[in-house]
């Protein structure tokens, strides 16, 4: 940035903050305007996770799939309109992304407790992801707030920018790099797969055809996942899919990664050492996971007067 542009940027930021419009996120965004917002989100997430443990995993994934497509702007929540097709139809989300009803319930309860719609759907996704991790035994962190909601969505960007489970390490690194996330963020955040389940169709080729896999693990997998059909049958991404722990990483070290992209992180490449470290050190994993979640949550937020606070997370106002 030239010094002239820099001066302009500083002036714009000064003016916006003078007008009471924030241009960056902060953890206290709703502290004055609705102090009950965050406790309410925590309560609804807690009740939902108690009813179905997996929904915590699903909510964590929704925030990831939101942030990787044009930033954390709740674009993933929008249904199709005449102007765009929903990101819910994109390959990584169709018949896969879930937890939308919990987001709608949170939005309803938060708007009720606040008395008016002040909390964005994008912030709800970020806080629900944190509260889900906490509910399943993982670390907590201070969620940065003040994101606003998009007025559009992009199915094609969702197809292009959300990484695929068939990627190798260089492609995964590249996909995260495009979001401003580094190799450590990639490995730490992939640790999200300490939670939740995957459908057969996404790991079938791995358990039938790949060689960097523990033979007993492959054998077990084939029992739940037949070579033909059964594509939506489910298997856990690690042996303890409802607990945030290091089993995902120790599993990779023993060649028991479920997805091709999981095992790619421990396959003789540059990320082996990080996987090994996290497999033995819960403290290091949980600390790095929390900082990378904050970093992911900061991807291209809409702030100030950009975007809107949706009344219904599924629809543009
Ligand atoms: C590194 C690239 C990644 C790839 C290729 C990937 C791919 C996948 C796939 C294929 C599934 C199974 C979906 C299904 O069966 O319908 C899945 C599930 C999941 N992913 Fe990822 N993922 C990645 C990174 C992440 C990140 C960064 C997070 C969060 C921090 C995350 C959180 C989850 C969770 C929690 C589930 C389970 C969801 C549930 O049970 O509903 N993933 N992922
Ligand atoms: C295994 O690989 C072969 C050859 O690429 C392919 O035709 C087949 O569909 C694969 N099997 C599974 C279960 O994915």
Structure, explained:
This protein is mostly helical and 317 residues long. It folds into two domains: 22-162, Peroxidase, domain 1 (Orthogonal Bundle); 169-295, Peroxidase, domain 2, CATH 1.10.420.10. The chain contains 14 helices and two strands. It has helices spanning 3-18, 37-51, 54-67, 100-114, 121-135, 155-161, 169-177, 183-190, 204-209, 215-224, 247-253, 260-263, 272-280, 282-297, and strands at residues 197-199, 234-236. It has a two-stranded antiparallel sheet. Helix 3 (54-67) crosses helix 5 (121-135), helix 11 (247-253) crosses helix 13 and helix 13 (272-280) crosses helix 14 (282-297). The longest helix has 16 residues, at 3-18. The radius of gyration is 20 Å and the shape is globular. 43% of the residues are buried. The model is unreliable at 1-20 (pLDDT under 50). The structure holds protoporphyrin IX containing FE and 2-acetamido-2-deoxy-beta-D-glucopyranose. 2-acetamido-2-deoxy-beta-D-glucopyranose (NAG) binds at residues 204-205, 208-209, 227. Removal of H(2)O(2), oxidation of toxic reductants, biosynthesis and degradation of lignin, suberization, auxin catabolism, response to environmental stresses such as wounding, pathogen attack and oxidative stress. It holds the Pfam family peroxidase. Disulfide bonds join 34-114, 67-72, 121-313, 200-225. Heme b binds at residue 193. Belongs to the peroxidase family. Ascorbate peroxidase subfamily. Belongs to the peroxidase family. Classical plant (class III) peroxidase subfamily.
